Every structure is written in C-alpha cells, then in structure tokens.
Amino acid sequence: MSRQLPRASLGGLLYREVNDALNEVFLGGRFDSRPLYLVLDNQGRGDLADLLGHRGDEVEAYCCHVVGKKLDPAGDPYDELFAEMGAWALGGRKQLPPFTALLFALAHAAELMVSDGDFMASNYYQRLSSLVDVSPQRLSQHGKSTAPFWRLFSKWLADNDFHYGRPTARAVNANKYVGVAMSQAIVREEDRQRLHQMFEKYGFTGTDEITGVEVEQYVSSWVNTSRPTSQFKAAWKKAELRPRICEIVVDELDDWKASTASAGAEKSGHATRLSLVLAFRHDLLARSATLWLGREATLASVELRGAAGPLELGNSTFGGLATVEPRSAVDLDEALQEGLSLESTAGDRFWWSTRAAIPLSRSPEPRNPAASSHRSASTRWTSSRLPAGGLGGTGSRGPRPRSLLGLRTCATSSATA
C-alpha cells in the first residue's frame, strides 16, 4: 500500500502544478515585449484548462482555491510564499517566479470586483476571501504584504528585457494594495478588443503616436456610445481611474498597430490608411502651411496609380514621413471632401477618409505682461467649438493639437510644395 502524502505536502504539489501551468500560459513567450496582465483572456483560459485538466469555466476558481491552500492558516497568510520568493531571489531568479499563482489570484479577485462595478476595498477583500477561503479581515490586515510580490515580479520582467512581457502593475487609486491588483483587471479583454472599434471609428492610422492625455478625449466621446461594456463605463466614471485607463488604451493602440502591420505584411492586396499632414514652413520672408497625404514610415518608394497620372509614396521630402507625390497631382479639394483611394502597381490600396476636426483658435494673450516674456516658442492653441459629429467633451488646451485635429504636424525650413 502506498503511503498517503500529508495534506500540507499535497497542497504544495498542487500549488507547484498550478504555478507552473500559469507560468506557461503567461510567461511562455506570447507576451514578449507586450503589456502583460495577469488575468486570462479566452485563449489563455483554454490553454490553462488543457494543462490542468479542468473545464474552462472552472479553471480560474480552481487555481485560486489551490492558492488558498498554500496560504498560512494563521497570522500573515503570505509568510510561506514570501519565504519562497526570498529563496528564489537569493538564487539569482534564474527560474520562472514561484509566486505567479498568488498574483493571479489577487488579480482575479480584482477582475470579479470590476465585474460588480463596486470598486470599494471592502468588496475586493470579500471577493478574494471567497476565492482563497481566508477571512477578509485577515486579508485586509496583511494587504501590504502583497506589495513585494508585485514589485519583484515587475523588476524581474524588466531585468529580462521584457522578453516575458512588459510590467503593468501599479496602483490606480488611493488604496495602493488593492489598486495594484485592480490595474490588472480594470480594462478586461472584451473591452480591449472593443477599443479596436474605437481606433477604426476615429480614423487612427497605425502610425499615430499619442499620449494618454490626448487619447482621453477620444475615450470620453466613445464611452457615450453603445460599444463599451457597462463595466468599462462604470470604471470610466471614476475620475481616479481615468489616467490608468488611458495608459491601457495607448498600450492597446500599440498592439493594434502591430497586429495591423503584421496582417498587412502577410497578404498582398491589403489596405493601408494614410494620414493627413499639415506642414509649416518658416523662413525670413514668409510663413506658409501646406497639406500632404502620407504615412509616418521610412519605406521603399511605392508606385501608385492616380486619376491625374502616376504617383509615388516615398520619403524624398520629409525623411521619416513618406508622402504622396507629386503633391500637385493630388486634388486636395476633392480628397478633403470625398476621401482618397489609391492603388499601387502591386495591387495594394492606400486610402484616407474624411473625419471631423476640432477648429483651433489662438489662446488669449496673458494679462500679466511679464508672463508673455516666458511664453513657449510654440504657439498655444485651444479648441473653440466642435462641429456636429465631432468629438464630445470640453476643449483641450496645449501645444500639441495634432491628434485633436486628426492631422499630422511637422515643421520644415525648406519649400514643401
């Protein structure tokens, strides 16, 4: 007769099995150089279910239950895992982290809390308690003990040159211990996929370089449509969560750009969106501004067929910005009203469609004369009104109007025509 393992030993074996499976799902290379969130998407859930032999709708609860068996029954529940983390760190962190399963359980509790639309810390610890079978009072009392796990995990990702993923764990509200877990789940997989519709709706080109501050106006408009989930809308109502949500949107935009470029590279006859570019010329005698159509990229010249004759998409004028030339052969009046679609000799399509722009007006001069001597060399502009069909929300003040206009802006010291 075989000897039965003690309960503690059996719990340890199950924990290692779950931790190894989660490491394979999250750290197996799928998120190389991409933002890594320790919550499961559909693909990850299916992979984890296969590895552990559980149904997809049960595997998350099972993993959290196993983590609960690993937690200490008295005192600080994280003591044993903290000791294992210390040994792993002293050993040079050569293996995959032994505490990924713990972080997953913490993030999954936040995911359930976000689903509730109740962002109170008390709700988080109630959710976590139901998953790991530890009292919410003890979990709350020792919440600060989870911070070193998140901190070391993020450092380990960075020290490995983001080969396993880019760290995303940072507090999103005043309760930093709950807030770090929330950062993993505040925008769920379904919401991130729906953001791609927002990028299409507002005409992002795949070459846009946009900040969290700039993207907020787009999200503020889009959140009032029927496309975001109720959970996303509830999170957006929390002002303290908005900066973090905008960071996630920017990260998702980067992923969307990469997937769009990859899809285009894998097939011929694909469509590429162009940008409308506003170029400023400044010399001693005059100032001028010209419009171009192009794409922010360095590429081999592409021959295009235009209504008025052959065109070329290349970097002969702006270096890092490929423009459609000769500019005089493009009917910009018609393009600005109807859009533009061009086809290359290889059968690929390059296009630009019209979209609403926010008109800009010069900001009022400061009343304090001394303040004018410290003005930035760049002119400040503010949105004065919004045309029908444009973005919602209030005007944005600042020296970078390009994303609000739907235009690229660049400066040049030589003629651009």
Brief digest:
Helix content is 43%, strand content 14%. It has 417 residues and is of the alpha+beta class. The protein is elongated.
Write up this protein.
With 417 residues, this protein is an alpha+beta fold. The chain folds into three domains: 7-182, no CATH class; 189-265, no CATH class; 268-360 and 381-389 and 397-417, no CATH class. Helix content is 43%, strand content 14%. The chain has 16 helices and twelve strands. It has helices at residues 7-27, 42-52, 59-70, 79-90, 100-116, 121-132, 136-141, 147-159, 176-182, 189-201, 212-222, 230-236, 242-265, 332-338, 369-372, 402-405; strands at 271-273, 275-282, 287-295, 302-306, 309-314, 322-325, 340-344, 349-352, 360-362, 381-383, 397-398, 407-412. The strands form two sheets. Strands 1-8-7-4-5-6-3-2-12 form a nine-stranded mixed sheet. A three-stranded antiparallel sheet has the order 9-10-11, with no helix packed on it. Strand 5 and strand 6 (322-325) form a beta hairpin. Helix 1 crosses helix 3 (59-70). The longest helix has 24 residues, at 242-265. The protein is elongated. The termini are far apart.
